[in-house]
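Forum: Protein Structure Q&A
Topic: Joint prediction for protein chains with partners

I've read a bunch of threads here and the consensus seems to be that you should model interacting components together rather than docking separate models afterwards. I'd like to see that in practice. Below is the full input, 258 residues plus whatever partners are listed. Could one of the regulars post the assembled result?
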Amino acid sequence: MDNQRRDALKAGGGLGVFGLLAAAGLIKPEMAFAAWNKDAFDAKTMDAALAAIGAGKPADSADVQITAPDIAENGAVVPVGVVSNIANTEYVAIMIEKNPAMLAASFTIPAGTLADVQTRVKMGQTSDVFAVVKAGGKFYVAKKEVKVTLGGCGG
Amino acid sequence: MASPMRIRAASKDGVTEVRVLMSHPMETGQRKNAAGEVIPAHFITELTAKHNDKVVLSAEFGPSVSTNPYLAFKFNGGAKGDKMVVTWVDNKGESRTDEVQIS
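Posted by a regular:
Agreed with the consensus. Here's the joint model:
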């Protein structure tokens, strides 16, 4: 059997399906990524992630509270909540320092919505969790260490 | 098509609390399957929550968000029977929209 020919057919077939889907408008990468801040989600260091969301060097603030367990048994599901007591909070980002990509999630908070969000994130290992908050054009940050006994990435 | 989201929206003392549980693999693109091939990334990138056509929260997710993502938030206003609509889009361009009435 001609293995090379098989591979070529496979590769061609795969491309064909993708092309068809794209042509049919089922896959619209440019639309899906239109607003998504790729730079920030790709950032591999804390500074790069902060720069990508335009935060620069945020000030430490005691008015930003992170709700997360001290010890997470399962790194695949770590509940994290952020509450900001700073008036006019318009943006909240959750970053995990030791993950392959820092930024886990970001929230845009319009007027009338409380700066109180909760979600669940994956953590590869014990790390500091940062909450970056934007209020009145300024950035503030708080952190909390979460110890992970069983990693959530790959496992 | 992905499974429906489970959405709970409850109004109390003028504040509505919304809880959403999405059904999504949230594949990071870092894991490998048994044959050692990288499993392609597949995760929700954007989410929008609307109360009667007014956006009350928009979120961007990265692959670090857990499988079957959970999200809870609160906003001022909202009355029983109002419409709450949540939409997400993932990195493959798939999307899903579900709505509930505030209870």
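Chain B has a mean pLDDT of 90.
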